[in-house]
Amino acid sequence: MILPIYLYGSPVLRKTGKNIGPDYPNLKELIDNMYETMYHANGIGLAAPQVGLDIRLLVIDLAPYKDEDPEMGAFKKVMINPELLETGSKTDSYEEGCLSIPGINESVSRPSKIKIRYFDEAFNEYVEEFEGFRARVILHEYDHIEGVLFTDKISPLRRQLIKSKLDQIARGKFSCSYKVKSPSGVKR
After folding, report:
1. Phi and psi dihedrals of 111, rounded to 5?
2. Domain encompassing residue 143
3. In this structure, what are the phi and psi dihedrals at residue 99, rounded to the nearest 5 degrees?
4. What's 136's domain CATH number?
5. pLDDT per residue as tens digits for the range 19-48
6. How far apart are CA 117 and CA 137, in angstroms?
7. Active-site residue numbers?
8. Of 22, 113, 128, 156, which has fewest CB within 10 angstroms of its CB?
9. Are 148 and 16 in contact (CB under 8 A)?
């Protein structure tokens, strides 16, 4: 089932997600719905707050980038209760967008290497290191479960320049090709 994606200005996007356990109601169905929602919106990552849930769950599928890097085709992850353990000191800048902030892309500086602990959908625990684009996508989605948006990481000047666009998204005055829910109550 395709879920509405909550847009900029929705209070749930600013909440820190809560840990969940294997007994979380309909977890498998939620994960399946998050993937379906993400694919329908042509995304590569989606965090639970983006579908209105303040829990620590995110899904990622980098298959759309397999032509650039064949290993991306096999990079599909569910991360439950992720905990960022380390970040490298080297950073890279790259233009990011977000399904919760349609039509806005900005250059964001992030660590190029991370170490993270998480559980998969069967609640097997992993501690893994990721670099480059994989680390960037994980950090972007991880920020969502911490109540942080990519626009929080850009310069104050850039934020001021896009303020009117952000305000329009929050008021439901935007164009989007996927199912959304704005803080003003507008559903599309």
Report:
1. -60, 140
2. 5-181
3. -65, -25
4. 3.90.45.10
5. 999 999 999 999 999 999 999 999 999 999
6. 15
7. 141
8. 156
9. no
